[in-house]
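Feature request, filed as a ticket because there's no other form

It would be nice if the structure record came with a short human-readable summary line next to the tokens. Right now we just get the raw output. Example of a typical job, pasted below so the devs can see what we mean:
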Amino acid sequence: MFKSLIVILLSSVLINNYVLSRFLGICPFLGVSKKLDQATGMGISVTAVMLLATAVTWPIQYLVLDRLGLGYMQTIVFILVIAALVQMLEVLLKRFIPALHRGLGVYLPLITTNCAVLGVAINNITDGYNFVESMVSSLGCGLGFLFAMVLFSGIRSRIDESRVPAPFRGVAITLIAASFLSLAFMGFAGLVDGLFG
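Raw output as currently delivered:
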């Protein structure tokens, strides 16, 4: 059991990274990764929302939707749950960590529409994970999102200090750097098989 949880965690962080291999959550990845503190705050916030969303949506799926034969309502219900959780998180950040709330600005409400959060909640159900496995998967996906945000923030700070040719300045060099980071993460593909056979 413990070994399978480690495999799920490592796979979620490195191999099936939602941003760099599944290309979900690209909007905040590109929008909030200019500064390390904002990237870290967004990554932590998304991780918290992923964990909360999984903790709420998994029981809703199995105890309500499946029992009532309403599985087709999954996406709508999950979106509503995630929106409510993000609103709660926004209120808490505004109250207890106003600097982070101001720093995230418009990007905090974007967590509501962050397809990575919805993707994690739905994929945990689709993959047939039990509750504990779903929580570990969500933690791994959140940590993978945070890891990608922090790495890309460092890359973007180096780009800002570099002399970039005129045709590549702005969005072009940002997308090129993101694609190289994504290619680098492909190198982790055999890691879990190599470690755990």
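Something like this underneath would help us a lot:
The chain has ten helices and no strands.
The two ends are 15 Å apart (CA to CA).
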